[in-house]
Design a protein that fits this description.
Number of helices of chain B: 5
Oligomer: heterodimer
Distance between the termini of chain B: 35 Å
Helix content of chain B: 25-40%
Structural class of chain A: alpha/beta
Order of helices and strands of chain B: EHEHEHEHEH
Strand content of chain A: 15-25%
Shape of chain B: globular
Largest interface: A-B, 18 and 16 residues
Structural class of chain B: alpha/beta
Number of strands of chain B: 5
Largest sheet of chain A: 5 strands, parallel
Radius of gyration of chain A: 43 Å
Helix content of chain A: 40-55%
Strand order of the largest sheet of chain B: 2-1-3-4-5
Largest sheet of chain B: 5 strands, parallel
Chain lengths: ~400, ~150
């Protein structure tokens, strides 16, 4: 507690008060004088006191009675009282009645250093107790604040979960509801061609083919969007995975895409990882499918698949000598429907790497890419090492 | 209104989807055999010969072709009602839905669907699956006998 503290001096004689004042004169104290019990009580209502120095012999209400009143009142009962008595022998029995604690006495005439020392220790006590109370108050406020923040946080988490759920439901519903009119467009184009039964001229036929083609593209976009949205809702079933086996299966599935191509494969050692086999296979599928696609202009394609350990994570990379991409857009590669090449050059909706990114993130890893135009691309993804705790969804999934 | 008994009770709220399906079934000469209703309540009214259909020829259709997303009573509600009813419970129900969602497929089978067809975007695929559907359920399959079933 900063600044001077109040000390109440109670004596019916002004001369005595003057003496007390001169003894206790200090910038640390603000001395308040009271010449009667009534004045003392008024002062006690108006101010907070660290200690009361009280002459036991007061006219009217005696010092003893005043002390009783003070000790009865909740607001003042904790204030220590130092009695001053000129007749110690006579007053002793009264003083004993108070017992120990915040009550003390001094015989008149009191020795200045003794009075100063007693008042000083009560003032110290007062300051310490105030500081403690302030600290407790502060701590209580901090605890209250933490409670409030915690509540806010859990509310935010709940809101976020609800928003996420809503978004997924929205995504799903959009994908399904968008399919209906598309299906109808495609259906009726076919029925129209049938109904026209060869009476359409070439231009009209060409337009219809273009409409159907556009509808098919939209169908792919919707399917991809649906697949992407489902990815967020599908539970991960993690298990130890032999990446090499997954890779072999993937290459087998992608054989049709390699028809008529010369591709030199370099396959390095691959780690055993912990993950959802269907999802990790999807990651490999998308990355290798991209590598096959973007090396198409090369007479001889080179695709390398390997791994390394970095910062405690298993990092798998797929490297190709294809057309690559402008590194300025490396981040955008992993966005939904982001394409860095024209549709005439390379087909696809641009969902593949977004799916890779989402799967890898859900496994507690990340995906990134490096390239320069015409120098091929190198796409990486990291996964927590087998046995290491993951930071993504995997930590929420039971392993048993 | 009198109504002869139809082989196929087709429950579909989207008129364009309905038209596409009916056109394929027409090619199989099943056009006269299809009774189209546009929601779950009408479907049950037909099956129970009540409301608009109180005067229809008695008997059960050979198959119910049921969309899931329907106004008023959903496809799954209709399916549950059919399976809970002693007279209707054996009527074959084929779900025709745009959803390939695992939960939708599982729920449909759980409630007793006999088959589940996903509405294809490609016209050729959709023709193929509907032709197979029409051939199988109206010509190949032996429908369950009508009446309260016990065994």
């Amino acid at each position: 507690m900063e600044g001077a503290v109040n000390v109440l001096l109670v004596d019916d004689e002004a001369r005595n008060l003057d003496v007390l004042e001169s003894i206790l004169d200090s910038p640390d104290y603000r001395l308040v004088r009271a010449k009667s019990a009534d004045e003392a009580l008024r002062a006690l209502v108006d101010h907070e006191f660290a200690v009361i120095v009280l002459d036991i012999r007061l006219p009217g209400t005696s010092g003893y009675e005043l002390a009783q009143i003070i000790k009865r009142r909740k607001r003042t009962q904790h204030i220590p009282i130092i009695f001053l008595t000129a007749y110690f022998q006579e007053d002793e029995h009264i003083l004993k009645g108070y017992g120990a604690g915040a009550i003390d006495y001094l015989s008149k005439p009191c020795k200045p250093e003794v009075l100063r020392s007693k008042v000083g220790s009560f003032v110290d006590l007062f300051r310490t107790s105030h500081a403690l109370q302030a600290e407790i108050q502060e701590r209580r406020q901090a605890e209250q604040r933490i409670r409030e923040l915690n509540e806010q946080l859990s509310q935010r988490v709940a809101e976020l979960a609800a928003a996420n759920e809503e978004l997924e439901a929205f995504n799903y519903s959009i994908s399904h509801d968008l399919r209906a009119p598309l299906r109808q467009v495609v259906g009726f184009i076919n029925l129209l061609v049938e109904a026209a039964d060869g009476t359409l001229n070439d231009t009209a036929g060409e337009y219809l083919a273009l409409i159907e083609n556009s509808a098919a593209t939209m169908g792919c976009l919707i399917d991809d969007l649906l697949a992407f949205s489902q990815l967020g809702r599908t539970e991960i079933h993690p298990a130890p995975l032999n990446l090499r086996n997954l890779l072999d299966q993937t290459l087998k599935t992608l054989e049709p895409a390699m028809q008529g191509r010369v591709i030199e494969w370099k396959i390095g050692a691959l780690p055993e990882v912990h993950g959802d086999s269907a999802m990790i296979r999807q990651v490999l599928m998308n990355l290798i499918d991209n590598a096959i696609k973007f090396t198409r202009p090369r007479e001889r394609a080179e695709i390398e698949i390997g791994s390394m350990v970095d910062l405690g994570m298993d990092v798998v990379f797929v490297l190709d000598n294809g057309v690559g991409f402008d590194p300025r857009y490396a981040e955008r590669l992993f966005g939904v429907f982001q394409r860095l090449h024209s549709r005439n050059e390379f087909e696809g909706t641009g969902i593949g790497l977004a799916i890779v990114d989402r799967i890898v993130r859900r496994h507690g890893g990340r995906a990134w890419a490096e390239s320069s135009p015409e120098h091929g691309a190198k796409v990486f993804f990291s996964l927590p090492r087998c046995g290491a705790a993951a930071n993504g969804d995997l930590t929420e999934t039971k392993y048993d | 209104m009198t109504d002869s008994l139809s082989c196929i009770l087709f429950v579909e709220d989207d008129p364009s989807d309905a038209r596409l399906v009916l056109d394929v079934l027409a090619k199989l000469d099943l056009a006269d055999q299809v009774r189209l209703v546009s929601d779950g309540v009408d479907a049950l009214d037909y099956l129970y010969s009540r409301g608009h259909f109180r005067n229809r020829t008695p008997g059960n259709p050979k198959v119910v072709l049921l969309d899931l997303k329907l106004p008023r009573l959903s496809g799954l509600d209709v399916l549950k009602q059919i399976r809970d009813d002693p007279v209707l419970r054996l009527v074959p129900v084929v779900v025709l839905s745009s959803s390939r969602q695992e939960a939708d497929v599982r729920n449909a089978y759980f409630l007793g669907a006999n088959s589940y067809i996903v509405k294809a975007i490609s016209y050729r695929d959709s023709c193929a699956s509907l032709t197979a559907f029409g051939e199988f359920w109206t010509r190949v399959n032996e429908p369950p006998p009508v009446g309260s079933q016990t065994h």
